[in-house]
Amino acid sequence: MGGSTPFAPIRRAAVIGAGVMGAGIAAHLANAGMKVLLLDVPPTALTPEEAQAGLTLADKPVRNRLAAKALAALTKRQPQALYDNAYAARITAGNLEDDGAKLGDVEWIVEAVVERLDVKQAVLERIEAARGAGTIVTTNTSGLSVAAMAEGRGESFRNYFAGAHFFNPPRHMKLVELVPGPDTDPELLVRLADICHRQLGKGVVVAKDTPNFIANRIGTYGMLVTIHAMRRYGLTVDEVDALTGPAMGRPKTATFRMLDLVGLDTLLHVVDNVRERSDDEQERAAFARPPELEALAARGWLGEKTGQGFYRKLGRQGAGSA
Ligand code: NAI
């Protein structure tokens, strides 16, 4: 990295993927004073869940427009104390296909596309081709292998690449997990911690590149145990949320409200990731896919982002992770 602290603040960033997290991260970076390029990725295929729900490829751009709408809604909702009026004007939206070359002008690129290793690897390959020398690249993965994501990329890319995992919603959740890959420059980690802490107001923890890192390894396990208990004791979704919400001091993060906020497809990816990669038999068993989640996802009911998950009336604020 060739510099010594304190580092110059980041002025120009890009976020790839304008979904639940990408839109929120873009808003947070813009609020911190950065100019942000928010690029969605034009879809080329349906997920099995979308195909099963009877969607066609023509429906997918609608979802991208919804992401743009979500960003606009974020803009309107920000309390004055947290966000200044000018921050939305600092965000330029586009798509990776048409605007990829603009990545050459930014200092930091945040990858926030769907939680699938093959998709992330393909997007990172395109980022590598477009990035300028010295541009930092981070992934917002919830817990896929950072090392596997960097495979096949050149040394310069690998030195400037790490996991920087924001939590949902990015403006409120205070934690960022930093996850170095095998070739991450140690000084990059120091710089990222500085950016996250001083520029973005976050607390930082450095995690090992293990399945789901720290917070999701524990948090997702807790959710799965809760769903298992619901089944065992014949409880309803409302009863579980009554028990695991305000009554436990979590006014906005009751189990199923949080699942809707996170997105059921994302949660299933996160669950699969531990089950497929853990070397602990008991843990693999605990991370079985809950049939309740699979049933909803198969109908395309993915939570707040599709307008329907465990709850129909959506749009409430909450906090969570994945
Ligand atoms: P999302 O489903 O809201 O958005 C996914 C984005 O990926 C969209 O921009 C979509 O256009 C793009 N995408 C979908 N299929 C694609 C494909 N085949 N090729 C290229 N791009 C594709 O997902 P969300 O929740 O924003 O998650 C993004 C990342 O952030 C994931 O790695 C997820 O694990 C992580 N994350 C999610 C959290 C959550 O609470 N939802 C919290 C923290 C991290």
What does this structure look like?
43% of the residues lie in helices and 12% in strands. By secondary structure, it is an alpha/beta fold. The protein folds into 2 domains: 12-206, Rossmann fold (3-Layer(aba) Sandwich); 215-306, Orthogonal Bundle (N-(1-d-carboxylethyl)-l-norvaline Dehydrogenase, domain 2). An 8-stranded mixed sheet has the order 3-2-1-4-5-6-7-8, sandwiched between helices. Helix 8 links the parallel strand 7 and strand 8 (203-206). Helix 1 packs parallel to helix 3. The longest helix has 19 residues, at 215-233. Bound molecules: 1,4-dihydronicotinamide adenine dinucleotide. Residues 17-22, 40-41, 43, 45, 64, 67, 112-115, 119, 123, 140-142, 166-168, 262-263, 266, 305, 320-322 line the site of 1,4-dihydronicotinamide adenine dinucleotide (NAI).
Keywords for this structure?
Rossmann fold, 2 domains, alpha/beta, single chain, binds 1,4-dihydronicotinamide adenine dinucleotide, globular, 322 residues, N-(1-d-carboxylethyl)-l-norvaline Dehydrogenase, domain 2, 43% helix, 8-stranded mixed beta sheet
